[in-house]
Design brief:
The chain has about 500 residues and is of the alpha/beta class. The protein has 15 helices and 21 strands. It has a 7-stranded mixed beta sheet with strand order 14-17-18-13-12-19-20, with helices on both faces. It has a 5-stranded parallel beta sheet with strand order 9-8-7-10-11, sandwiched between helices. Strands 5-6-21 form a 3-stranded antiparallel beta sheet, with no helix packed on it. Strand 12, helix 10 and strand 13 form a beta-alpha-beta unit. Helix 3 crosses helix 7 and helix 5 runs parallel beside helix 6.
């Protein structure tokens, strides 16, 4: 847990930040020496200059990754040794958790308590869990005739390009690199230009743990300049991406235009949170509904941004949700008591404010929030926002906002709720609140979503997969199923007689 006695502002003043890339085991400037300025959304302070990597740097990193894969300096190690190295990697993350949490908060704007107790600890747990899995996953023998032996094995796919988003920088990086490394691959990680700092430190810690040079490379840079060359590279075997649906579509096209590399995209969401009149615990539903949409400033792909509530309990539930807003007022992210921080940058704040204005113009009723706050800080903060009388055709209900905006939609029947819930291009997550177990199962089965919560929201574990249906993408992070993305399935057929 966080030490409330830590003066995070003082720590920030003395924090040393290295913005250079990690390529083939070394910190390096971009080949053309280009950099971009990294600012904190907390107060617009400049944090550092970061290497602005481009095609030449991607080539260097891919060459290093391919050499590391071909000589089997990582994949060829005994599983026990790779496991021990990844566990050491996880231990180093925990040992450096305060530095990593401070980098995460300064770079992205989320509360320091969340960075330390959730994001950094989650990243360490992910790497440890997949490290432990290395010597516990078995291959298969097919049931063939006596004179043959057919082995079905999974082999590392080769060089993995991982492009991760800005909203959970260290956690999303771990979701990609942990199963990729556990499978024996080499990785080129491209963090978002909006929040690259913890990914770069992960590159240092991986080397310190004993992961060989070239096995994990970290390239900061912009999407068009670094992400696209990685997705188009002819010597990258797999691209794993988390981000917007619009960019995910481009990634899929680039994979096809190049070498038909495997392309796994975990994309956006507009998740329905359905509360029926027979919900047993309305207080809990209100707490979860508010907590899940306003957590991380609403910058979560699976946030339950559409609250579908049965008409007879709408007023009761909405009143309780509005009462919860006092717990999610934006504050100083470096204060341990803050529960809601800053939007990642000015552009994201302005985008969310435009959606709020569109909600007003289209006839939704603004019940709370809807404005920038703490402008005097120089940072980018929006108050928790609640709209009522929303229809599914409104932009605030149809499009992913990625901000602290909740849309309330009323329904009268089970079928109507299901139809509204599924009437979206997305299918990442959903929730059902009811004490009727038959109704819960029936509705969950009909919802087109990768994860359906019942009488909860946003509860999960590393043991279960995360990903969506439809235009929420085809990727599945977490659980042993993630290993399937980073391996090739091989049949070896042996005639015995």
């Amino acid at each position: 847990m966080i030490d409330i006695q830590i003066d995070w502002h003082q720590r920030a003043k003395t924090l040393k930040i290295d913005g250079r890339a990690v390529i083939n085991g070394k910190r390096m400037s971009a080949a053309d020496k280009a950099t971009f300025e990294c600012f904190s959304p907390i107060d617009s302070r400049k944090l550092t200059d970061v290497a602005s990597c481009k095609s030449a740097d991607v080539d260097l990193a891919v060459v290093a990754a391919r050499a590391a894969f071909n000589d089997r300096r990582w994949a060829g190690l005994p599983p026990k040794e790779r496991k021990q190295t990844m566990i050491k990697f996880a231990d180093l993350i925990i040992a450096n958790r305060e530095e990593l949490a401070l980098l995460e908060t300064l770079d992205m704007g989320k509360p320091i308590t969340a960075s330390l107790n959730v994001d950094v600890s989650s990243a360490a747990n992910t790497i440890r869990w997949f490290g432990e899995a290395i010597d516990k996953v078995y291959d298969e023998i097919a049931p063939t005739a006596d004179h043959t032996l057919a082995m079905i094995t999974r082999e590392p796919i080769g060089v993995v390009g991982a492009i991760v988003p800005w909203n959970y920088p260290i956690a999303m990086a771990a979701w990609k690199i942990a199963p990729a490394l556990a499978s024996g691959n080499s990785v080129v990680l491209k963090p978002s230009e909006k929040s690259p700092l913890t990914a770069l430190r992960l590159g240092d810690l991986a080397l310190q743990a004993g992961i060989p040079a070239g096995v994990l490379n970290v390239l900061p840079g912009f999407g068009q300049e670094a992400g696209s060359p990685l997705a188009l590279h002819m010597d990258v075997d797999c691209i794993a991406f988390t981000g917007s649906t619009a960019v995910g579509k481009k990634i899929q096209i680039m994979a096809g235009q190049s070498n038909l590399k495997r392309a796994w995209c975990e994309l956006g969401g507009k998740s329905p949170n359905i509360v029926f009149a027979d919900c047993k615990d309305v207080d809990r539903a209100a707490e979860a509904s508010a907590g899940s949409i306003f957590y991380n400033q609403g910058e979560s792909c699976n946030a339950p941004s559409r609250l579908l509530v049965e008409r007879s309990i709408k007023d009761k539930l909405v009143k309780k949700i509005l009462a919860e807003l006092k717990n999610y007022q934006p504050g100083d992210p470096l204060d341990a008591n803050t529960t809601m921080g800053a939007m990642v940058d000015c552009g994201q704040m302005e985008s969310v404010l435009k959606y709020i204005e569109s909600g007003k113009l289209e006839g939704a009723s603004l019940l709370a929030g809807g404005a920038q706050v703490k402008a005097e800080s120089g940072g980018f903060y929006i108050s928790p926002t609640v709209f009522d009388n929303v229809t599914n055709r409104m932009k605030i209900a149809a499009e992913e906002i990625f901000g602290p905006v909740l849309s309330i939609i009323t329904f009268d029947t089970v079928d109507e709720a299901i139809n509204i819930a599924n009437d979206t291009e997305y299918g990442l997550a959903a929730a059902v609140w009811t004490q009727d177990i038959s109704k819960a199962h029936m509705v969950a089965k009909r919802l087109r979503a990768g994860t359906v919560h019942v009488n909860s929201y946003d509860e999960d574990d590393i043991t279960v997969p995360f990903g969506g249906y439809k235009q929420s993408g085809n990727g599945r992070d977490k659980s042993l199923h993630a290993l399937e993305k980073y391996t090739e399935l091989k049949t070896t057929w042996i005639r015995l007689t």
